[in-house]
Amino acid sequence: MGLKHTTGRIVIQVDMNYKDSHRFESGEEIKLIRRVDNFDRKHTEPVNAIVISSENIQEGAEILIHHNSLHDSNRLFNHKPLSGSDIAADIKYFSIPELEVYLWRMSGEEWKPVKGFATGLRVFEPYKGVIQGIPPKQLKDILYITSDGDLKGQVVMTLKASDYEVVFQDEGRERRVIRLRHSDTEDLEREEVQLIHHDFTKKVNKGDLLIGLTPSDAKQLNKKEVTTAFINN
């Protein structure tokens, strides 16, 4: 195709309707209409993309991007003469900033954070009273780190609003992952980890604190299960 990235940007290919379906275990698929009763763009907008050209990510890799990246200001309109079928096609091409790419993988591999990002799960304090059905309480600006690196398996305190949830499509089903900005090796201008909370880490390891995405799926740490921050819907 001949599309080439420029410094600080990545050229990607996106199926604009990739997120709008759900596949059952039987293989049957249904159509999801996302833009009718939900105005949260993290939920409605496509975030899966394929790398066409990049300085730091292998061509052909699948990536997860920011939910506002696919704006017409980033779209490539004139990369080839357009036919009517091209205009109507679901596949579009964009050039987006590298900083709007969060995770990547090659076919058959596990998702990995790109440079400057990590993944985590929220931390919850369980209700210890006598009333049944009270959900656990989320600890504010606290995350349990799940991605490989110096902080894996540690509970950290973050800056406010560091907890960004990516809603994406994986093998026909919706999944979710929390990403935050962090680097073990570089001083990031926007580093979001403030400190390691050793007391909370001990409580998670003992089962006194829960980890998960929401109060309904929060549970005690099982190191065999909690190896990533990905949650199936």
Sum this structure up briefly.
This protein has 3 helices and 16 strands. The chain is mainly beta.
Could you name the key traits of this structure?
3 helices; 2 domains; 233 residues; eight-stranded antiparallel beta sheet
Walk me through the structure.
This protein is mostly beta strands and 233 residues long. It has 3 helices and 16 strands. The protein folds into 2 domains: 9-109; 117-232, no CATH class. A hairpin with a 5-residue loop joins strand 2 and strand 3. The longest helix has 9 residues, at 198-206. The chain is globular. The protein starts with 8 loop residues before the first strand and ends with a strand. The mean pLDDT is 90.
Q: How would you state the average pLDDT, rounded?
A: 90
Q: Structural class of the helices, strands and pairings?
A: mainly beta
Helical amount among residues, as a percent range? under 10%
What is the rounded distance between the termini? 36 Å
The count of domains is: 2
Radius of gyration from the alpha-carbon trace, in angstroms? 19 Å
Task: Categorize the overall geometry.
Answer: globular
> How many strands appear in the DSSP assignment?
16
User: Approximately what portion of the residues adopt beta-strand conformation?
Assistant: 35-45%
Poorly predicted regions: none
Indicate the multimeric state.
single chain
SS field, number of helical segments: 3
Query: Main beta sheet, described?
Result: 8 strands, antiparallel
Give the H and E element order.
EEEHEEHEEEEEEEEEHEE
